[in-house]
Design a protein that fits this description.
cleavage on pair of basic residues, 0% helix, mainly beta, single chain, calcium ion binding, two-stranded antiparallel ribbon
Length: 84
């Protein structure tokens, strides 16, 4: 998959070759190439949680303030300034 944070630009070289002439008695090269330049647009991605999924089982009526779970979230857009 394309990912803006990994690489914003890609270059793709395409080469095609003919086994037979395109037009009889006309000399064309047997191959042709084209270069395609790809610019990946950024999207605002949601946070990535670890562990994912997180399953928590606790008894009901535990005291307020009891420890329930700990997880970590990272922002894949860490290079981008965010605003709310």
């Amino acid at each position: 998959p394309l990912d803006y944070e990994s690489a914003m630009f890609h270059t793709l070289l395409i080469k095609v070759e003919n086994e037979d002439p395109l037009v009889p008695d006309v000399v064309y090269g047997p191959s042709s190439t084209a270069t395609v330049y790809i610019t990946v647009m950024d999207v605002n991605e949601g946070p990535v949680f670890f562990p994912d999924p997180l399953v928590v089982i606790r008894r009901e009526n535990i005291p307020v303030g009891s420890f329930v779970a700990m997880l970590n979230a990272t922002d894949p857009d860490y290079l981008q300034t965010q605003s709310i």
